[in-house]
Design brief:
Largest sheet: 4 strands, antiparallel
Strand content: 25-35%
CATH topology: N-terminal domain of TfIIb
Number of helices: 1
Order of helices and strands: HEEEE
Bound molecules: iron/sulfur cluster
Radius of gyration: 17 Å
CATH class: Mainly Beta
Number of strands: 4
């Protein structure tokens, strides 16, 4: 199917990626909200800060807790395996109370 005028303009302005580009390995997976627990020791994802370059980061996902209020929601710390530094936090879907949700 051909691209519409809007798609061609958006691609030229780099608002959206090149839709005719072949997808990278793994792109055929279905969308999901959280990484599978089996992948927490070796989770890979693209670094959004590097866009439009496709830089893959390798993480260990470490369960932890938010201490900002009395709810103590479950979090996942994304530890960069290359540097050993935490790059971001997201909700922990395996936490029995917050089940992946948090307020911020
Ligand atoms: S994520 Fe929000 S609601 Fe949960 S413990 Fe932290 S501050 Fe409280």
């Amino acid at each position: 199917m051909g691209k519409s005028f809007i798609e061609r303009v958006a691609q030229k302005l780099r608002i959206i990626p090149d839709l005719s580009r072949p997808h990278s390995k793994g792109a055929e997976q279905t969308l999901r909200k959280y990484p599978a627990i089996e992948d927490w020791d070796d989770h890979r994802e693209l670094d959004a800060q590097q866009w439009p370059k496709r830089v893959v980061r390798n993480y260990s996902l470490v369960p932890t807790t938010c201490f900002n209020c009395e709810s103590a929601c479950g979090m996942l710390a994304y530890v960069d395996k290359e540097t050993g530094r935490v790059r971001k936090f997201e909700g922990n879907p395996a936490h029995p109370a917050s089940r992946g949700r948090n307020c911020a």
